[in-house]
Design a protein that fits this description.
This protein has 328 residues and is of the alpha+beta class. It is 28% helix and 27% strand. Strand 1, helix 1 and strand 2 form a beta-alpha-beta unit.
């Protein structure tokens, strides 16, 4: 059975909007068929089937009134994989096992899409999500990075605090799962005070990333799509006094401005992306009052909707174009 490969699979979750709709529209304009897969709806609403024998394999996906054979898929946009929303009828003791099995089944299912073009390849995304590897590679390609200490040793943390002249922030190595969103546990980057370190024995339970606090003139979100850069800047003097992290600032405080990066930073970013083999990435930089650009991190599936919305950047269109480009 021969399938026309004209479908682009958009992997996300049911709470996702705007960015996914913009990418779907851009794909339709280019004559491709977007197929949205909300991963949280598997296994309750989405059905997948994988058949294997010595004569080959066949994989299908049913969601609502649409079904799909993975042979129809030419490209995959990896936006988010979400934990399943399981029924309240399922006994709590089975929830964890059903979640793990469902995620494992999805993980196996992606293999049937190995011939498709991925933005981005899952293993490359996972490799790039490693914050310590990010810092190493950023420094190797010539970007400036903050002095950083990852430790579970309270004494080391206290010494580092004085080494960076008491200007220090703490952050997480991994974003916490959304199930912890309600908790105030170090969700975002936050400043560390001396008294926080007096009783730093909790580090024995969980290592923390400590970084020198970089003085901010502007905070930049730099979206890289297949060689193109879209730069949004926030004037950091407006809300920096109240918070360390723009994701916590009110929308009114976040006025994105279009910006450009100097050529040498642009070439460092190209080199960085080449090392990770990524087509897409959302970088966070700080520009200091003296004009220096400091790399903070990259999110290989990061947010960009606010830049498209506020600055009218054609990011969705660039993603659609990268998905449909034939060169890998």
């Amino acid at each position: 059975m021969h399938h026309e490969r004209d479908v682009v699979l958009l992997i996300s979750h049911s709470g996702d909007y705007f960015t996914i709709d913009r990418v779907a529209q851009a794909l339709l304009r280019r004559g491709a068929q977007p197929f949205r897969l909300d991963t949280d709806k598997f296994p309750m609403t989405v059905q997948i089937q994988a058949n294997f024998s010595n004569f080959g394999s066949n994989h299908t996906l049913k969601y609502g009134d649409r079904s799909l054979n993975t042979e129809e898929v030419q490209a995959v946009w990896m936006r988010r994989i979400w934990e399943p929303q399981l029924s309240k009828d399922l006994a709590p003791k089975f929830q964890a096992a059903c979640t793990t099995e469902s995620l494992a089944a999805l993980d196996g299912f992606w293999d049937s899409l190995r011939e498709a073009r991925w933005v981005d390849d899952l293993q490359r995304i996972n490799a790039a999500e490693n914050k310590l590897r990010q810092l190493r590679v950023a420094s190797e390609v010539g970007l400036v990075i903050p002095q950083t200490l990852v430790t579970n040793n309270p004494q080391e943390a206290r010494e580092f605090f004085h080494r960076v002249k008491r200007k220090m922030v703490a952050k997480l190595l991994r974003p916490l799962s959304y199930s912890m969103e309600g908790s105030s546990f170090f969700m975002y980057t936050s400043a560390v005070k001396e008294e926080d370190l007096v009783d730093a024995e909790t580090l024995r339970y969980c290592p923390v990333v400590f970084q020198e606090q970089i003085p901010k003139q502007q905070e930049l979100r730099v979206v890289y799509v297949n060689g193109k850069l879209f730069v949004g800047a926030l004037n950091a003097s407006g809300y920096a006094a109240s918070t360390q992290d723009w994701r916590r600032a009110t929308k009114e405080a976040c006025v994105w401005q279009a910006d450009e990066l100097p050529d040498e930073i642009v070439s460092c970013i190209h080199a960085f992306m080449a090392k990770f083999g990524l087509v897409f990435g959302a970088f966070d930089f700080i520009q200091t009052p003296s004009g220096e650009y400091v790399f903070l991190e990259i999110n290989p599936t990061g947010e960009w909707g606010m830049l498209e919305r506020d600055l009218e950047y054609p990011i969705a269109d660039a993603i659609a174009s990268a998905l449909l480009s034939t060169s890998t």
